[in-house]
Amino acid sequence: MPLQNRVAPDGALHATPHRGTLMGNRGGRLHDPATRRLLSQGWRSIRWIACTLCFRRRHRDVMGAGYTELFFLDEVTALADGHRPCFECRRADALRFQAAWQTAHALPTPPRASEMDALLHRERRTGRTKRTLRRPLSDLPPGSMIRMGDTPLAVRETGLLPWSFAGYGAQIARPACETLVELLTPPAVVAALQAGYRPLWHASAGPC
Questions:
Q1: What are the pLDDT digits (tens) for 104-120?
Q2: Pairing status of strand 133-136 against strand 145-148
Q3: How far is 189 from 179, CA to CA, in rounded Å?
């Protein structure tokens, strides 16, 4: 049976056979290693990261004695849940994200990982509930994730892509009028996207 460690854009964890293209964690173990079932905690620390699936030939017993491995369709999904690139296994991406964050927030020096984590955690949760905002769709850069009704949608330059654990559906047109939408991606991440950070997309999204 699939394990309940696949992450949706709203942060909920599901059991599905679709593995995705990135792995991550929320700072520790969220499961019972004997049963590999989730416990009540949604996270162990505010250090939420998104990692590559393979790094230095390390092998993990998924949902074993260590931290709870979480899987994302792609980086757009991970960013929507408030995860940032890992400075160890995705160092080049993490440095690009850090530089975009610095530009977006007009900081004199690159932000520390702990500083980014603190702001991201304030923006991604209200208690145990996903924090969302209403924003004009026209203000959102590509790589942002929104929700219309029950459907998560990724913003592209020319339209919107319906999200699923299996991949993105066919692109739909943006609404013609000025539309307020429910934004899933934390504002600090949106600012980094506006400042030039380019996330990794699942192949089903097509060429950027």
A1: 999 999 999 999 999 99
A2: unpaired
A3: 21
